[in-house]
Design a protein that fits this description.
Helix content is 88%, strand content 0%. By secondary structure, the protein is mainly α. The chain is flat and about 85 Å long.
């Protein structure tokens, strides 16, 4: 005769293993989305600097895959909540995955927006702000890469470091904004392409903001605390 307590223990272990597998699948989907979003940003910037119109069209078309992955992540997250009824830290992990997939999809949208401006800037003269943007995009893309690794590893310290790096992206944006404004004031013929580049810089700046938003979600999922409190505590040291 089977011991009832042994049966309950086996059911509990089975449920725990199933939840861990669900969570691993969610993390894998988020990693896949992140890798694609990073590639999209890098490729859109390459197309912009090399005036590669055909490559830019491929970036726009590839955004559809990110949309599909977001839908799949949402479906699995809702299914996990409905079937496993996770609590406390487990629930925070699933909700974080749900929110992060939405933010990563938005990051892909920014890459698509940049790619759509390549054709309009094809004949624009090479000016200083355009040479600064790849470095700005590199920092923003690294923030996305690092913060998604932090989500997989439940690494609150890395999430904090990512949030602190957003200031570097903001500094690039402010510098580029001032330079583009000067170009427009010096010659009205610069207004058209300078405005397009301003939109590109703003899109990269928003990527940094979204990486910071993800960092806040990761920090909360890992600790249950608010990242703002940790950053404020640093400021008082």
């Amino acid at each position: 005769m089977v011991d009832p307590t042994e049966n309950e223990s086996l059911i509990g272990a089975h449920t725990l293993k199933a939840f861990d597998e669900d969570l691993d699948q969610l993390r894998a989907l988020i990693s896949q989305m992140g890798g694609l979003a990073e590639h999209q940003i890098r490729e859109s910037m390459r197309c912009l600097t090399q005036r590669d119109i055909e490559g830019a069209r491929k970036v726009v078309e590839a955004d559809r895959r990110l949309d599909e992955l977001e839908t799949e992540t949402e479906r699995r997250a809702i299914e996990t909540i409905a079937l496993r009824a996770p609590l406390a830290g487990d629930l925070r992990d699933v909700v974080a995955a749900l929110k992060i997939s939405n933010v990563v999809e938005r990051i892909g949208d920014y890459a698509k927006n940049i790619a759509r401006r390549v054709e309009e800037l094809e004949s624009a003269p090479a000016i200083e702000p355009l040479s600064l943007m790849p470095e700005m995009a590199r920092i923003a893309t690294e923030m996305v890469h690092d913060v998604l690794n932090a989500f997989v590893e439940r690494d609150a310290e890395t999430a904090l470091r990512v949030a602190r790096r957003d200031q570097a992206v903001d500094d690039f944006y402010n510098s580029i904004f001032r330079t583009l404004l000067t170009h427009m004031m010096e010659d009205s013929h610069n207004i058209g392409h300078a405005t397009q580049l301003l939109f590109v810089a703003k899109n990269i700046e928003r990527v940094g903001d979204h990486a910071t938003n993800i960092a806040e979600m990761v920090y909360y999922a890992a600790t249950g605390g608010r990242m703002a409190d940790a950053l404020n505590a640093d400021d008082t040291v």
